[in-house]
Write a structure and sequence with these properties.
It is a multi-pass membrane protein. Pfam families: BPD_transp_1. Belongs to the binding-protein-dependent transport system permease family. CysTW subfamily. Keywords: Cell membrane, Membrane, Transmembrane, Transmembrane helix, Transport. With about 425 residues, the chain is an all-alpha fold. The chain folds into three domains: about 50 residues; about 100 residues, no CATH class; about 220 residues, Orthogonal Bundle (MetI-like fold). The chain is about 70% helix and about 0% strand. Helix 1 packs across helix 20, helix 10 crosses helix 14 and helix 17 packs antiparallel against helix 20.
């Protein structure tokens, strides 16, 4: 009897165990399929987003030019205590690798890097290479100091010492209008050399102003689109989307034509008698705001419209029927339901405005250029990738920080209201 029961139990357990194995296989197969479906998107994000940002962050601290072209000189000068001038070994390594750098084309790289520290350093290297003796059986200390007296100056060697490590905080500090002295202390640069902190403030002010204007103009328009009958709202929505069919460059150039002294805006204001002479509406902050708001307004309207379309009007009507003033019902009942759309629209417009380059460059004046202008300048004109990457990294950090603060405030407000 006992053996029959055991057999029945085993026979009954076999199908259950087999079913569990099949379920596990089915779940595993679903996970594999899901991963395969997501893999192309993940690969695209890695290639188009993660790798470029990682490369930018690395370039902001990369200082490998001297180590790659003149490794012996870098290794020797890092042993120097920074007082007086280095010993003969450093002079010898420098002379040998200077000669080699002329042959393999590395002189341009190290000259460009050292010019960031001292604008005249490349000419010093070129003059030294040209006058190097052919023989190696000489005192290189005497030879180099005889070629140019600057090799007998401690500050000249401090320039090489600052460029010798493989990583540096020079670019990040310069982006904050700061520098590290020869004693290792971080100090602010001279007032006449301070630039980038003011540029970051200007960028935040312009981006914030454009965002507020877009919210002020976009909210009532999105509300109108959401409350009108579908036939009318669809026609208006086409006009909202119409700017997407025109090139950004064309729209920016059109604003230059409209806002210039003899443009349509000034002509209309003078014809109506509002002004007596043309106003300066372009190549200043006013023109920047006009053009950027025109370009970014649809990015505010669309998120607001998508949220407002799902808000039922019955809550507002109920509040009015219970005695609330229509404006109070709108502000206290309807607006809180659109917070997610406001948050999405403002974050989208603000982040896009932070990185704008073409519009301020064409429509704005010298005092209206944003961080992106200087990133483009260092990338395309001076080939100072370290400085461009540092400015881009700080802009990314500021964007993420403001997004986290804004996200926290919005969530806190929603929790309080709920």
């Amino acid at each position: 009897m006992t053996s029959i029961t055991a057999t029945q139990t085993l026979d009954g357990a076999e199908p259950v165990s087999g079913l569990k194995a099949q379920l596990r296989r089915a779940e595993r197969l679903k996970k594999i399929k899901a991963m395969l479906l997501v893999a192309p998107l993940a690969l695209f994000l890695i290639v188009a987003f993660v790798l470029p940002i990682s490369s930018m962050l690395w370039r902001s601290i990369d200082n490998s030019e001297i180590n790659q072209v003149m490794p012996q000189t870098a290794a020797q000068i890092l042993k120097w205590d920074g007082t007086g001038i280095p010993d003969e070994a450093v002079f010898a390594a420098l002379a040998e690798e200077l000669r080699e750098s002329r042959e393999d084309g590395g002189l341009g790289r190290i000259g460009r890097r050292l010019n960031y520290e001292d604008p005249s350093f490349r000419s010093l290297l070129t003059r030294t290479i040209r006058k190097l003796p052919a023989t190696t059986e000489v005192s290189w200390t005497d030879e180099l100091t005889g070629i140019d007296a600057r090799w007998n100056d401690t500050e000249t060697w401090h320039v090489l010492l600052r460029a010798a490590p493989t990583t540096t905080d020079r670019y990040l500090l310069a982006s904050l209008d700061m520098e590290r002295g020869d004693d290792g202390k971080i100090t602010r640069v001279e007032p006449n050399q301070q630039l980038y902190v003011q540029v970051f403030k200007r960028t935040l002010v312009i981006a914030g102003g454009v965002t507020l204007i877009c919210l002020f103009l976009g909210f009532p328009l999105a509300y109108l689109l959401a409350t009108l009958p579908p036939a009318k709202s669809n026609i208006l929505l086409i006009f909202v989307l119409l700017p997407f069919w025109t090139s950004l460059l064309v729209r920016t150039a059109a604003w230059i034509v409209l806002l210039q002294s003899g443009g349509l805006v000034n002509a209309g204001l003078m014809w109506t008698g509002i002004i007596d002479s043309p106003m300066q509406l372009v190549f200043n902050r006013i023109g920047v705001f006009f053009a950027m708001v025109h370009v970014l307004l649809p990015f505010m309207i669309l998120p607001l419209y998508s949220v407002m379309k799902g808000v039922s009007p019955t809550y507002q009507r109920a509040a009015v029927s219970l005695g609330a003033h229509p404006f109070a019902a709108f502000w206290q009942v309807y607006v809180p339901q659109t917070i997610s759309g406001i948050a999405a629209g403002t974050i989208l417009v603000f982040i896009m405005a932070l990185g704008y380059y073409i519009t301020p460059a064409l429509v704005g004046g010298p005092s209206d250029q944003m961080v992106s202008y200087y990133v483009a300048y260092y990338t395309n004109t001076t080939n100072n990738w370290g400085m461009a990457a540092a400015l881009g990294a700080l802009l990314l950090f500021v964007t993420l920080l403001l997004y986290l603060v804004y996200h926290k405030l919005v969530n806190k407000r929603q929790l309080i209201r709920s």
